[in-house]
Description:
This protein is of the alpha+beta class. The protein has two domains: 92-163, no CATH class; 177-386, MetI-like (MetI-like fold), CATH 1.10.3720.10. Helices cover 52% and strands 13% of the residues. The protein has a three-stranded antiparallel beta sheet, with no helix packed on it. Strands 4-5 form a two-stranded antiparallel ribbon. β2 (101-115) and β3 (120-132) form a beta hairpin. α5 (175-211) runs antiparallel to α6 (213-228), α5 (175-211) runs parallel beside α9 (265-278) and α10 runs antiparallel to α11 (294-302). The two termini are 50 Å apart. The model has no long low-confidence stretch (mean pLDDT 82).
Amino acid sequence: MTTTDNNQPYLEHLVDEQPWDPQSVEQLTPEQEKFYLANQWTLMWWKFRRHKLAVWSGILLLITFGSILISEVVAPYELHSRNTDYIYAPPQMVRLFHEGEFVGPYVYGFDYHLDMTTLQRVYTANTDQVQPIRFFCLGDEYKFWGLIDGSFHFICPAEDGTMFLLGTDRLGRDVLSRIIYGARISLTVGLFGIVISFLLGVVLGGLSGYYGGWIDSAVQRLIEIIRSFPELPLWMALSASLPVTWSPILVYFGITIILGLFDWTGLARAVRSKLLALREEDFATAAVLMGAKPKRVIFRHLLPSFTSHLIASATLSIPSMILGETALSFLGLGLRPPITSWGVLLNEAQNINVVALYPWLMLPVMPVIIVVLAFNFLGDGLRDAADPYK
């Protein structure tokens, strides 16, 4: 073995004198190149698509939030339309066949009589009254978003007929139509509330994580104080303090602000923990050395590094807003008529005797459950897609 002067083994270097041929190097396939050159958002989308439950939940939420833009058109009846002849009418079943023949979607009309023992209306289906359901039709008149007169509906009852797919309430109002109208309020409360919560969480959590010291201590003590209060009783106390003379719109914004002011603590701590880790990274140090101010370092360099996590956290916070509004309105301390929300509809079903006789009045709880589950599944999918270690 050949050695050098200091008795170290000498390794012979072999140099290929032939010119380099780029075609001889293994080339990436188009699929591999697409993967290696993809940005963060594209990789998130690819991982999110594999979470089928989250994808379907996202589609469901898009349809639900899209419907609140055209609630007047989607609902078969106008919000305050009353059918005094059909008070506490049970749900009508949609059928396709009548006496063995296909006639399309229809419902049977109602006959009813008053039970003199219980003084309760007893409804029975009249099989001689076949009432076809109409689509893309003219029905109850309404004001679209309170501005434009209209009467066009996607679905309508038969002429001089009825179509109470989820029954009616104590005033003969269609429960399905009121659930559709109530979605506009219940869902937007969650969106507006999360905007307030998101701003407070990002700003206070960012200041706490970036500066540290007494600012961090002050923000963390404030968070601990807020989280030490029982959430629902605190909401109830503040909601009860709203003046009864306020208009429904002011009460709506008051409830939204209350929900937003006490839901930012979890997000603030998540932002703080991320900033504590990221502020020591090389790119953050380089920005500071180049003269970037703290505001620019936080919002231009640090926050974009975990924006995906913020989106997932915000998505998981919206259900708590919806449940908070529903609970407060159910207890009579939130939104009040004439505003219609899912919580207000459930408030009308507080009497256990009424629920025992007319169980369909509890149906407004179903969209609450479905939407909250959809948001949780969507949030789980987004959180998994945003995790770089999965």
